[in-house]
């Protein structure tokens, strides 16, 4: 069973940076996309970025390009989300998710990590 565990969230001032980590286990991830999503209070969950485990192809929410970077460490089965120039509107619970490249929906989710950006 695939398990995803996020870490790295916290409180940061506007303009600061955070790096989130997602440790993946329980599967062979070469045929997976790993994604980051976020959900702000009172809003729907939204896509942030994804990376293909094999080949490192990446895709981002347009408005986050240039500030957020998704990457991975194959040896440690870990996916990262580097977030720079953070804004108060980036405040949300950030979730790691995984799906096969042949699937459209993400069946595997982590528990989430809170990111709070103060003004």
Helix-strand blueprint:
Blueprint: E1 3-7, E2 10-13, E3 18-25, E4 32-39, E5 46-52, E6 58-60, E7 68-73, E8 78-83, E9 92-100, E10 108-109, E11 113-118
Parallel strand pairs: 2-11
Antiparallel strand pairs: 1-3, 3-8, 4-5, 4-9, 5-6, 7-8, 9-10, 9-11
Characterize the biggest β-sheet. 7 strands, mixed
Rough outline: globular
Instruction: Please report the total strand number as a whole number.
Output: 11
* Poorly predicted runs of 5 or more residues: none
Oligomeric organization of the protein chains: single chain
Give the C-alpha Rg: 13 Å
Provide the structure class.
mainly beta
Residue share in β-strands = over 45%
Task: Kindly report how far apart the N and C termini lie.
Answer: 40 Å
| Count of alpha and pi helical runs | 0
Query: Can you give the mean pLDDT?
Result: 96
> Percentage of helical residues?
under 10%
3D architecture notes:
By secondary structure, the protein is an all-beta fold. It contains no helices and eleven strands. The protein has strands spanning 3-7, 10-13, 18-25, 32-39, 46-52, 58-60, 68-73, 78-83, 92-100, 108-109, 113-118. Strands 2, 4, 5, 6, 9, 10 and 11 form a seven-stranded mixed beta sheet that branches. Strands 1-3-8-7 form a four-stranded antiparallel beta sheet, with no helix packed on it. It is globular. The model has no long low-confidence stretch (mean pLDDT 96).
């Amino acid at each position: 069973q695939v398990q995803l565990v996020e870490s790295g969230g916290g409180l940061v001032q506007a303009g600061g940076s955070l790096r989130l980590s997602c440790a993946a286990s329980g599967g062979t991830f070469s045929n997976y996309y790993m994604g980051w999503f976020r959900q702000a209070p009172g809003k729907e969950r939204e896509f942030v970025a994804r990376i293909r485990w094999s080949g490192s192809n990446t895709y981002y929410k347009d408005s986050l390009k240039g500030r957020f970077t998704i990457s991975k460490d194959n040896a440690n089965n870990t996916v990262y989300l580097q977030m720079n120039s953070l804004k108060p509107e980036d405040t949300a619970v950030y979730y790691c998710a995984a799906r096969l490249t042949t699937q459209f929906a993400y069946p595997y989710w982590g528990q989430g990590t809170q990111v709070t950006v103060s003004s």
